[in-house]
Amino acid sequence: MKLLINGKNTEIKSNTETPLLWVLRDELGLTGAKYGCGIGVCGTCTVLIEGKAERSCISPVSELANKQVTTIEGLSDEGTHNVQKAWMEIGVTQCGYCQPGQILSAVDLLSKNPKPSDDDIDDAMSGNICRCGTYNKIRSAIHLAAEK
Ligand code: FES
Ligand code: FES
User: Fold this and answer.
1) Residue ID of nearest Cα to ligand 1 atom 3
2) How far apart are CA 28 and CA 25, in angstroms?
């Protein structure tokens, strides 16, 4: 089958019941989305499906025909999306493992709520776990992106 990934129609050879995360990483070499829990609870595998943040570890590709999938690699040319720029300005990243998922969840939040409050941010981002505890900086970066 074919998937629409980062704006390109892409032929997939994996079994259609394979979760998207493994297709992205193992078949297509798009390693921005990370493996954390594999059961939809940590958020590190987050991608955008039709602009909405989704867990790629529990999204079989059979459900993704004709849907736009955006990974961190396809969010912008050279990290120029407002959320990525805010992330760099604030210096959010520590080890980096969770950050592609965090950024894509923030993009989804801002598309629905362009001026989120702290509570809105905490609520929307609660499914993205960061072992390095970058939560305060994530909140600051989302406020900064909202001003851009
Ligand atoms: S690896 Fe997908 S939610 Fe944890
Ligand atoms: S930056 Fe290390 S897990 Fe989030």
Assistant:
1) 40
2) 6
Q: What does the DSSP 8-state code read for residue 95? A: S
Q: What is the pLDDT of residue 148?
A: 86
- Report pTM: 0.97
Q: How far is the CA of 28 from the centre of ligand 2 (A)?
A: 24
Q: Check if 95 has its Cβ closer than 6 Å to any atom of ligand 2.
A: yes
pLDDT exceeds 90 at position 85: yes
Residue in this structure with the two tokens 């790629």, named with its chain if needed: 56
- Exposed e or buried b for every residue in 42-55, given b needs 16+ CB within 10 A? bbbbbbbbeeebbb
**Token pair in block for residue 30:** 């798009």
pLDDT given for residue 88 in this prediction: 98
